[in-house]
Amino acid sequence: MKVAVVKYNAGNIRSVDYALKRLGVEAVITADKEELQSADKVIFPGVGEAETTMNHLKATGLDELIKNLRQPVFGICLGMQLMCRHSEEGEVDCLNIFDVDVKRFVPQKHEDKVCLLYTSDDADEEDSVDLGGCRIIKKKNNKKKKKKTNSTKQK
Questions:
Q1: Are strands 3-6 and 41-44 parallel, antiparallel or unpaired?
Q2: Nearest alpha carbon to residue 73 among 20, 23, 37
Q3: Inter-residue contact 38 to 75 (CB < 8 Å)
Q4: What is the DSSP letter of 16?
């Protein structure tokens, strides 16, 4: 099985390569069109800011290449964000592989540590759970309006 890691203006490519090697997977790190298209699986990692990275992908033609890949593509962090339709981080249009907008999230309190956030434009209920100082927030999208109760929230 041939695994390719997309090489572009991102930060955690070597970390992904190291993790794969620990699993016994030898991957090729590349921006080469033919290598990416011939891979059985593609990993699209990244750390950085959406607008700057999308500009780089467009300038190198990687945006169209990634959109047109037909094998499984695994987006990690920024890579997954860029696979969505739009990001509020820089108000930039992304690859539009997933019909989802990425929302900018800013914690309400500086001491909060947010572990997970899922949002939906038409979400009508919010759950918040504190797990030992790490708050998980989840907004649910329910078809029927449910009345919020204090028992579903922990402060």
A1: parallel
A2: 37
A3: no
A4: H
Cα-to-chain-centroid distance, residue 8: 15
Neighbours of 20 (CB within 10 A): 16
> pLDDT tens-digit profile of 99-117?
999 988 766 654 544 444 4
User: Are 76 and 45 spatial neighbours (Cβ–Cβ below 8 Å)?
Assistant: yes
Q: Which run of H or E residues covers position 107? A: none
Distance, in Å, from the CA atom of 43 to the CA atom of 99, rounded to the nearest integer, reads 20
Contacts of 34 (CB under 8 A, 6+ apart): none
Rounded distance between C-alpha atoms, residue 86 and residue 51, angstroms: 10
Mean pLDDT of 52-77: 95
Give the whole-number percent of the chain exceeding pLDDT 90.
55
Report the alpha-carbon distance of residue 135 to residue 112 in Å, rounded.
Answer: 7
- Residue 61 region, left (φ>0) first, then alpha (ψ -120 to 50), else beta? left
The answer to whether residues 71 and 104 touch, using CB atoms and an 8 Å cutoff, is no
